[in-house]
Amino acid sequence: MDDVIIVGAGPAGANTALGLTKSGHSVTVIDSRTLLGDKVCTGIIGSECVDKYPPAPNIIFGEPTSAIVTTANGKEYYFSTSYPQASVIDRTEYVAEFSRQAQNNGAKYFLDERVTSVNVMESHVKVSTTQRNLTARCVVVASGFGTSLLSQVGLSKSYEYMVGSQVEVEIQNIQSVRVYLDSLKTPGFFSWITPTTNNKGLVGVISDNKSKHKLEELLKHLALTDVIDKVCGPSRSWGIPLKPINQTYSDRVLVVGDAAGQIKPITGGGIFYSLLCGDIAASVLNECLRNKDLSAAALSEYEVLWKKEIGKEILSSYGIRKFVERIPRKIQSQLVRVAKAHSLIEDIIMNKGMFDLHSQIFSAMFSHPAVSWIFRKNSMDSQGSKFVQDKIVEIGTNKQIEENELVSR
Ligand SMILES: Cc1cc2nc3c(=O)[nH]c(=O)nc-3n(C[C@H](O)[C@H](O)[C@H](O)COP(=O)(O)OP(=O)(O)OC[C@H]3O[C@@H](n4cnc5c(N)ncnc54)[C@H](O)[C@@H]3O)c2cc1C
């Protein structure tokens, strides 16, 4: 019997496996994919992630220092920083490397095999796949967005999510990341073009629904305006949870990564949090395995620790996301114009080093007098703006944003 079975070899599962094998535990990882790490993803990681989990230099496609933001009214704004705040990486290779290291430390991997059931017994867990039955002292559910395994271990999934759709394209002379804010021509919460390598790039849309259809609309627009040359292959879509599940542990079970909803709610980025929480899961399991106590009470330490690291940031960002969704397009466009005019983005990200702290970026922006003025001005003719204005004051004074406050309106 193994110490731990891990379901899923994305960043969450692979890094949990690596941490556990480093401490000498026996680990089996099961993934339904044949190619490790090959999930739809743009592969942008912030500098904090790069510093903590450095990618090999040969898998870094680029380190962009600029972005062109197109607002709903079609205007383009160029933002740049003097040194890179993020890297665009070969996500498949990056994630696979964690698995290779875990395998070198002795982790067993079963690929192209789907876990069909997880049964938690008093003294162990039974995991069945399409090809075999396995047992272990405990299980880590790292099987990503929408996994059906949570209900089998008595936990509930996150029902609030968005959908991301993405496709590879051929592009010429695009150096900057391009971001399109919601508009009729490029509909969705936001859309992007990220240059990768050899005149290729990734075009994607994140939206609450119909993201695939919205991506097609965007591609038509980009082809017509000669921004892209050719679409390479079919698009792929996958869900992104918007907030964490209620509980990420139970007897002999931990849940890590997208399955747990450990994601940045504003951008949908989840690689860094998955890796971080994989480390935390491994260290708590290490302790619990040594103490021979895998009860929910002992494993609850995992939730305490990951929430201490990223819980507040996720909650605040979730609130801000809900808030931004409510800002009328016209005001969104004005905000970007003001951000450019006052060098807000550059100043906040560069001087305060906040690229990964989305809630703080928005808080800093919203507390700027020029931004508050826009909301005040618009409150005269727009219904929702009074609410916006109130929130600005709160966010500006760094009050904790209560989730329900924003969701219920
Ligand atoms: C379009 C799009 C773009 C994105 N871009 C970025 C980005 O640029 N930067 C960023 O940080 N994040 C991005 N994300 C989010 C990021 O991809 C995820 O947050 C991250 O992959 C989560 O890691 P994970 O290990 O929890 O899950 P996953 O990476 O989804 O891994 C889960 C693994 O479990 C396996 N699995 C599932 N069910 C079973 C089963 N029953 N049995 C066996 N195996 C199973 C799957 O095959 C998969 O390999 C993007 C997401 C989307 C949709």
Plain-language structure description:
- The chain is of the alpha/beta class.
- It has 3 domains: 2-41 and 90-158 and 243-311, FAD/NAD(P)-binding domain; 62-89 and 161-241, D-Amino Acid Oxidase, Chain A, domain 2; 327-407, no CATH class.
- It contains 13 helices and 18 strands.
- It has helices spanning 11-22, 47-52, 91-104, 149-152, 211-224, 271-290, 296-325, 329-341, 344-352, 358-366, 369-378, 385-396, 403-407; strands at residues 2-7, 27-31, 44-46, 60-62, 66-70, 76-80, 86-89, 108-111, 115-120, 125-129, 133-141, 161-170, 177-181, 190-195, 200-207, 230-241, 249-250, 253-255.
- Strands 1, 2, 8, 9, 10, 11, 17 and 18 form an 8-stranded mixed β-sheet that branches.
- The longest helix has 30 residues, at 296-325.
- The model is unreliable at 380-385 and 396-409 (pLDDT under 50).
- The structure holds flavin-adenine dinucleotide (FAD).
- The site of flavin-adenine dinucleotide has 39 residues, from α1, β2, β3, β12 and β16.
